[in-house]
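Please, structure for the following, as tokens.
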Amino acid sequence: MEYDHETQVVNFISGLLLGAVIGAGVALLAAPQSGRRTRRRIKKTAVVMRDQAGDRWDDIADEVKGKVDDAIDVARKRVAS
């Protein structure tokens, strides 16, 4: 399977962000602070990550929809000619 440059960049950035999130989670769990404070920070981080994932999902859905619409237009033009 061949990926275009844009897909490779998106995959790299996604992996980089995932690594940063995992690293932040490990840092929170290893930090010398109270359990209550740690749980509160983890909860805040989880909410932010959920919101960001939802936003990213919406962006991907819009991108896929656009590409599908373009493919349908091209197919219709080929069938019409």
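Residues 22 and 28 are 10 Å apart (CA to CA). The mean pLDDT is 83.
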